[in-house]
Structure formats: structure tokens, C-alpha cells
Amino acid sequence: KAGVTQTPRYLIKTRGQQVTLSCSPISGHRSVSWYQQTPGQGLQFLFEYFSETQRNKGNFPGRFSGRQFSNSRSEMNVSTLELGDSALYLCASSVDHYEQYFGPGTRLTVT
Amino acid sequence: KNQVEQSPQSLIILEGKNCTLQCNYTVSPFSNLRWYKQDTGRGPVSLTIMTFSENTKSNGRYTATLDADTKQSSLHITASQLSDSASYICVVSAGGNNDMRFGAGTRLTVKP
């Protein structure tokens, strides 16, 4: 069974731009969660989508948004990028949010 | 204050030695506790998941323990290998919505 895939793997953007990251979950998994990981803050939960609906949301500003499609693929969007948004963005899929399988992440650098 | 505290922050051991990583939490109500291994530049990989009623769970050379009364967990690694060099993250889920709280991780380096 193929694992969780994330695209792109690396991205460099400029302050003020917006970015969209993509996550393809393991086949059959309907839950997709997004996390931000930085050296200073560690892993932080962004949001979770289940069957195209946002089920849980972390404590991030409205510049961070996401969506899930009918095939369970998910996208995360960050608008008006700030330097502090530089991080590894991880996506995890699961059947029911219990046993989560993480993707390799997208390394976003904001300059 | 973080609701999940891990210690030590970093650890260096020799190949073949055992080590124990600690996780203390204040998350309530407790749902489950997970240990993840994260290699540099990769996503975390689940090692164990424990619910309230479980106090020990093993995955190969990794053994996790949970004391729900004292709100402490440990991850014991036996006969360490170079490939064990990674960050180990403790994650505690709270309540019915599985609100997850993450520890800052312990960075383990195994040297030959």
C-alpha cells in the first residue's frame, strides 16, 4: 500500500505571497491532519479534515486554511506569508484519527 | 507551560547500550499516549499507542510504559543501533475529540 505523499517536498516563497501544499492520503483513509513543525515550537496541530469536513482546528490564524476533496486528497493554503511561517509542514492520514501515518513533509522557506 | 514535557532534551549513547526517555504530562482528560520516532527530514513514525488501561506496550526493541496515576510515560530502547538516532516525540491526546498535545521531543544520538 502506498504511503502518504506530499507535494512539493521543498518550496521557497517570498513574504506576502501565498502557498498551497498538497497531501494524498493512504488509500481508504478518510481523515487527513496537518501539522506545522519548527525547531522552536515543535509539532503543532493545524487542522483535521474528515470526509471533506473540517473536524478539528488548532490555534492558528485565519491565514492558514485547508480543504479536502471527495477522493480524500487535501490541500493546505497559507496566505500573506510571514518569515515565521518557515517550517516543515506535515500531513498525516488515518482511518479515524487514531493510528496516524505521516507523510515526508513539505519544507517551506519564506524569505 | 507545555502540557507534555519530555526529558532529556538530548541524549548520546554508545551502540548496544540501553536508554530510557521520559514523558510527563498534565493533559486532561486523558485519551491516549503515543510515541513517535522521527528521522531527520522525515515524517514521524508511530512506535506505540497506549490507552488508559494499558501500562506497557512493546514494538521490537522499543518498550513504552504508562503510569496514568502519576501521568508519566517512558520509552525504553534496548540494545541501541545506529539507526535509532532520531527524535522521539511523545504525544498525548485529550478528551473525546482527540485533541493532541505534543512534547518537544528527545534527540537521541547513537554512536559507534
List keywords for this structure.
heterodimer, A: 111 residues, mainly beta, 7-stranded mixed beta sheet, 4-stranded antiparallel beta sheet, 0% helix, globular, B: 112 residues, 6-stranded mixed beta sheet, 5-stranded antiparallel beta sheet
Structural description of this entry:
The complex is a heterodimer of chains A (111) and B (112). With 111 residues, chain A is mostly beta strands. Chain A contains no helices and eleven strands. Chain A has strands spanning 5-7, 10-13, 19-24, 31-38, 42-50, 53-57, 64-68, 74-78, 87-94, 101-102, 106-110. Chain A is globular. The mean pLDDT of chain A is 94. Chain B has 112 residues and is mainly β. In chain B, 0% of the residues lie in helices and 60% in strands. Chain B has strands spanning 4-7, 10-14, 19-25, 30-38, 45-51, 56-59, 62-67, 72-77, 86-94, 99-102, 106-111. In chain B, the strands form two sheets. In chain B, strands 2, 4, 5, 9, 10 and 11 form a six-stranded mixed β-sheet that branches. The radius of gyration of chain B is 13 Å and the shape is globular. At the A-B interface, β5 and β10 of A face β5 and β10 of B.
Rg result of chain A: 13 Å
What pattern of helices and strands is seen along the backbone of chain A? Answer: EEEEEEEEEEE
Through-space gap between termini of chain A: 37 Å
What is the strand content of chain B? over 45%
Alpha plus pi helix count of chain A: 0
Q: Helix/strand-derived class of chain A? A: mainly beta
What overall geometry of chain A do the principal axes of the alpha carbons give? globular
Query: Quick check: average pLDDT of chain A?
Result: 94
Quaternary organization: heterodimer
Please indicate the percent range of residues of chain A in DSSP E strands (runs of 2 or more). over 45%
Nearest-integer average pLDDT of chain B = 93
Query: What series of H and E elements makes up the topology of chain B?
Result: EEEEEEEEEEE
Q: Characterize the biggest β-sheet of chain A.
A: 7 strands, mixed
Uncertain segments of chain A: none
